[in-house]
Every structure is written in structure tokens, then in C-alpha cells.
Amino acid sequence: MGRRGFxxxxxxxxxxxxxxxxxxxxxxxxTENERQKSTLNLIASENYPSPKALTLLGSIWxxxxxxxxxxxxYYAGNVNADSLExxxxxxxxxxxxxxxxxxxxxxxxxxxxxxxxxxFTVLEPGDTVLSLNLNSGGHLSHLHTTSSYVKFxxxxxxxxxxxxxxxxxxxxxxxxxxxxxxxxxxxSYPAQYEFTRLCQxxxxxxxxxxxxxxxxxxxxxxxxxxxxFHSGASGADFVTTTTHKTLRGPRSALVxxxxxxxxxxxxxxxxxxSGGPHLNQIAAVGQSLxxxxxxxxxPDKTPFxxxxxxxxxxAKALESGLKQAxxxxxxxxxxxxxxxxxxxxxxxxxxxxxxxxxxxxxxRNAIPGDEKSPWRPGGxxxxxxxxxxxxxxxxxxxxxxxxxxxxxxxxxxxxELSIVTKDLQKSLKWYY
Length: 432
Fold this sequence. Notes:
Blueprint lengths: L2 H19 L2 H14 L2 E2 L9 H7 L10 E2 L2 E2 L5 H17 L6 E4 L5 H12 L5 E5 L21 E5 L8 H11 L3 E4 L10 H10 L3 E5 L4 H5 L16 E5 L10 E6 L3 H12 L5 H15 L10 H21 L3 E2 L7 E5 L6 H10 L2 E2 L1 E3 L13 E5 L1 H5 L4 H15 L5 H12 L7
């Protein structure tokens, strides 16, 4: 046996010992790492936080219990926790230029509970909520028929016309239903919309406004989308967002409120519905906010504003590729996501599974006016934020869109699509 063969055998044996020592959770974690690394993630609600953010999720902050708020905790030993929470609050307000009119709660664990905090703060049983129809791009947490909250509140929807939101239809719904609370913010709506005008209309009809910017938070922070953070009738009364989509942080959430509502929101969160905050999440959110502000940098060193500009350009490139292959889109994208209308004969669940088999991760999605089952809807939702984080460029998105579109239209088979996928994957960055 030569020297090279000997060291190869030693290496294989060390790998064997390492694998043998791993428990099942460690093995699954390594397997998931490899799955993420080797696939093209086009899910619009996912992204890759920086390694520093992930490190904070597993840091010593995990060990501390901190029921209450800074300066008013129910446990001792929270001097550093107080400083952490106050720091992250300040950075959240700074990111959205909201320090003058708003406060923020950083303790909520995820997006749907964040919306619930607003419901429980301002609504009484029997009050009416108005939100966008689910198959028009609304979200399940906006009080749709599957929500448990419809036991307590009345719910009506507004819809789209021609795939887009129109002020006249929005105003007609306000006039007809007279809601106590209006939800503005959508999970599969590719166009942009003007928060100022929509807030003014809702307030003119006596409604409070909850702006859910979970999908577009990064765009708002970078000045690439209208903002709901304004004083008076032009601004939303409440703003919620997750932190793991275009904001590119860990899985968590933020609840902003006009200052007059902030004490009530805080009481709803604690002690109204929650116990001790997850300080490790709060710390990781703070890290991502520093990256948005440019006080820290993502591993690729690209300033956050430039990253968001690339996200938007890449979404347009993805859309162009799909259209070149003959796929229809519901409306032209002006955000990070593309909503494709599938041919009638294409089963969206089968398509999603076929794409995953060749390493392209997507999600099937309802489209405006969809008459198909929610389990097998008529559309496919694609997003550009995650792959932009991994360094994919405009031309690559164009190529990927055309390849996916050609597969949808029956012009390429799985083997041909797999070649494109593997070729694109080779150049992607991986930070973990």
C-alpha cells in the first residue's frame, strides 16, 4: 500500500468514528446542512442569516430567564438582559426610521403570534376585521376562515381586480363592512402598494390599521418599498414583521405600535399571553439589524441596501426567464417574489415535488381567482432573496427561470433541468 492509500484509509476510518459517535439529531443536522447547501432555494419566505446571527441563537443568552421588561424583571441577574433588549429595541426603530412616533416589542417569537398580539390588544369579541382574501395573496394569520380567532371576531375580506389592489375596491370594502381593524400586508403579492394612501383611507372610515410587512421588511428598511411608519393618519397604528425573510435575520418577530398603543401591546405580550422572552433570539435579531444598518456586514461584505437592490433585479430576471419559456405570471413583480400561473393541466403539487427532486425548492401557491384546491392550487411562488444571499447573479436567475419555465411547459425534462441546477449550484457561496 502506498503512502497516499494509507492516509486515505486513515481518513476514512476517522470519518467512520465520527459518524459512529454522532447521535441521530446530529446526523440529521448534518444531512440538512448538506441539503440546503446543495439545493437552489426559491422559497420567498426563507433566507440565510449570517453565521454571527446563528451563533447567537446557540449562545449563553439561551440560559437566562427574563420575565418582564427592562428595569422590571421577575428574576434577578438580568442587568445584561436589560441592556440587550433596550439595544435591540433602539436598533429596530432605527432601521425603520420610526423612533419619533413608534415603540417596539422584541419579545414575540414569530409572525402569526405577532399579529395575534395586535388583535388581543385592540379588539373586543365581535369586532370586525378586514383583510385581503387568501387566494389574492393574504396570509392565514390575517384572520381567515381557518383561524381559531374567528371564534371571537367577525372577518371580511377585500380582493384584487386584474390581479392588483385598487383603492376603489379597498374603499368599498371599508364602507360596506365598517371594520374596527384593517390588515394591510400580503404574503404572495408581487406588486408594490402605497401604505400612506391605504392608511389614510382606512382611518377615514374609523378603522385602526395593522401593517404586516413580514415579506417586504427588508425592502422597506432599504427604502425600496413604501413605508407604513408615518405620523398621524398616514401611518399604520401597528406594524408587525418577521425577521427571517428579506430582513435576513433569525426566525423571530417584531411588533411596532404608535406610542399611545405601546403600553397596551406590552401588557398583551407579557403577562397577557407570554412568559419569559427568548434572549438568544433577541440577540440574533439585533445582529441582523446591525447588518441592515451597516454597523456589521454580512459575510459577502455587500451593503444591505445593495443586497436588496440585487434581490429586486434578480426577481425581475427570474420572471423574465419564466416568461421567455411561455409561463404566465399573475402580475409583473416589483418585489422579491414572482407568482406564476400554471397551465391548467399542470398539477402544482406534482410540479413542486418534481422540482425538489432535481434540487430546486419552491412552493405551490394560490393565485387571484383560483378555483383549484388549496392543496393543489393553480400557481407557483418563487423568491429571489435566499439565492441572492448566496451570490447568485442576474444572468443566473434568468437562466434558472427559463429552465424552470421550460420544464413547466414540457420543453425540458428532469434530466435536462438537473444539469442546469447542478451547474448553478457549483458557484454558490455557503457560509456555515
